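Q: Sequence in, structure out?
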Amino acid sequence: MKLRVLSGIQPTADSFHLGNWLGALRQWVRLQDTHDAFYCIVDQHAITGNYDPKLLADRTLSAFAQLLALGLDPQKSTIFVQSHVPEHSQLQWVLSCLTGFGEASRMTQFKDKSQKDGAERATVGLFTYPILQAADILIYRANQVPVGEDQKQHLELTRDLAQRFNTTYGETLVPPETLVLSEGSKVLDLTNPSAKMSKSAPAGCVFLLDDEPAVTKKFMSAVTDSGSAIEFDPQNKAGVANLLTILASVSGRGVSDWVNEFSGKGYGELKKAVAQAVTQQVTEPTRTKANELLKDRGQLIKLLNDGAVKARSVAGETLNNVYQKVGFLK
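A: Exactly. Output:
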């Protein structure tokens, strides 16, 4: 039997970006051929901070269209919206009753965000975010979860809660393992190569739904340095190294090949090559396909409903076992 993998992504912007694709989404496409894949658009997580309710539904549907455009197949994987599967929240309550207040307080992301915005403005939803994330994973008895550095602490909490439940009530939940992806390039902001590419800094972020002029403009405006040599030196030439990393990741050719290719050439030629590769192989095909899919919203919603039915068939079984173990009346 295939190992089950679970991963999720928030619909908090009009478009996913290049960092999302290189770091996670293209691996999702590959995993659906080797794993029993469950992919969740986590709209409940999306409301823990400031958001626009008028945009959330449209962004959720757009996120689904983009996932399909990138190659996710509802026949190969289970793709669904978090709020369509109430078992997530139901399991979260049980797990919350097993989580210590101090334990939840030590979650790095909560500490960082609450310090940034002020503790008084931090919501209880933000505080319990990692517990809902644990429920997202454990409700499907996922064997593996692909996570980045910023989510490793949350996965450890998930494992701890699964083991704590099993010790207290008997073997029920599956402690997931970290899935180390063979690739997963860290893409940096084009205007500030000391920071990760993020939707919160749109000037240095290439979105998958950007048109060709927008993509080209962003790459041609990318920060490099005062030198002229095209070398892979992340410490001293972070901007150039970022461009080479993107080009290598998109093209499938090694960084050293591209360094040799651009020997004696200028930064402008490198930027044009990266912009062309990203446009032709990533953004233009994704934008064209996603826009076409969004013309039939009814069909997209039907596919999401089908995904929710598949997801609930697994989640419901897990929740029934959990409820029985904790003593809830059937």
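DSSP finds twelve helices and five strands in the chain.
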